[in-house]
Design brief:
Spore Coat Polysaccharide Biosynthesis Protein SpsA, Chain A; 7 helices; about 25% strand; single chain; globular; alpha/beta; about 230 residues
């Protein structure tokens, strides 16, 4: 890869600012061990394995940002920054964007709760952004979808054609995502993912193939699922 890229122009913002209360316990979800190491460390090391990644900004809750866990510094500290999380996910990402160096003209935003994101998925995202697109790693919906009312009664079947399950990383040209966050802040808008901030402005966002291994840890049983997926190929 070093023969192709003369500069490290990719910046990564890893969002690890949430409390993860649904998984239980007092320890932060992103600090818990899964598949042989702390969840957050999986993602940081995977992104740092790319030679074109110049900086990884980890966004942590305020009480941890000043004193991060020591295992985090097993990474390349010259390419690691810790930023303070905000009140919402959008604020946390915006804080991370502010801390990226000027050289980071390709921006990837990733959720720490997806520890097994693979190199192939990241490559698809980066390649698409290099081609000028804003993209989301995603998988097509394969289940039959039903729309129900407040009492749980099925009202109709939803067509799954053209429906995708969004994952991370999501990738953007830097100025595009920075402008989208600035507009959202001015309009007091927050979103559960960054692509939505572009969609509201009418900016095209495309999908690239994600991976079943990029499971998002949200429930206690998900730790066992990640352990099982860890040995599988992407």
């Amino acid at each position: 890869m070093s023969d192709v890229f003369s500069t490290r122009d990719v910046g990564v913002v890893i969002v690890a600012g949430g409390s993860g209360s649904r998984v239980g316990g007092e320890e932060l979800k992103q600090f818990r061990w899964v598949a042989g190491k702390p969840m957050l460390l999986h993602s940081v090391q995977t992104f740092m394995a790319r030679e074109d990644v110049g900086m990884v900004v980890v966004v942590l809750p305020q009480r941890y940002a000043g004193d991060p866990p020591p295992w985090l510094f097993q990474c390349d500290v010259d390419r690691l920054l810790v930023s303070v999380g905000g009140r919402t996910r959008s604020e946390s990402v915006a804080n991370g964007l502010d801390d990226l160096p000027d050289e980071s003209q390709i921006v990837l935003v990733h959720d720490a709760a997806r520890p097994l994101v693979g190199a192939a998925t990241i490559e698809r995202v980066v390649s698409a952004v290099r081609a000028g697109r804003s993209v989301v790693a995603a998988l097509p919906v394969v289940d039959t979808l039903k729309h129900g009312d407040d009492d749980g009664r099925i009202e109709h079947t939803v067509s799954r054609e053209s429906l995708w399950r969004a994952q991370t990383p999501q990738g953007f040209p830097r100025q595009v995502i920075v402008d989208a966050h600035r507009r959202a802040m001015a309009d007091r808008v927050s979103a559960t993912d960054d692509a939505a901030l572009l969609e509201r402005l009418g900016i095209p966002v495309h999908v690239v193939r994600g991976s079943e291994r990029a499971l998002k840890v949200t429930e206690p049983d998900d730790f066992a699922r990640v352990d099982a997926l860890y040995a599988s190929d992407e």
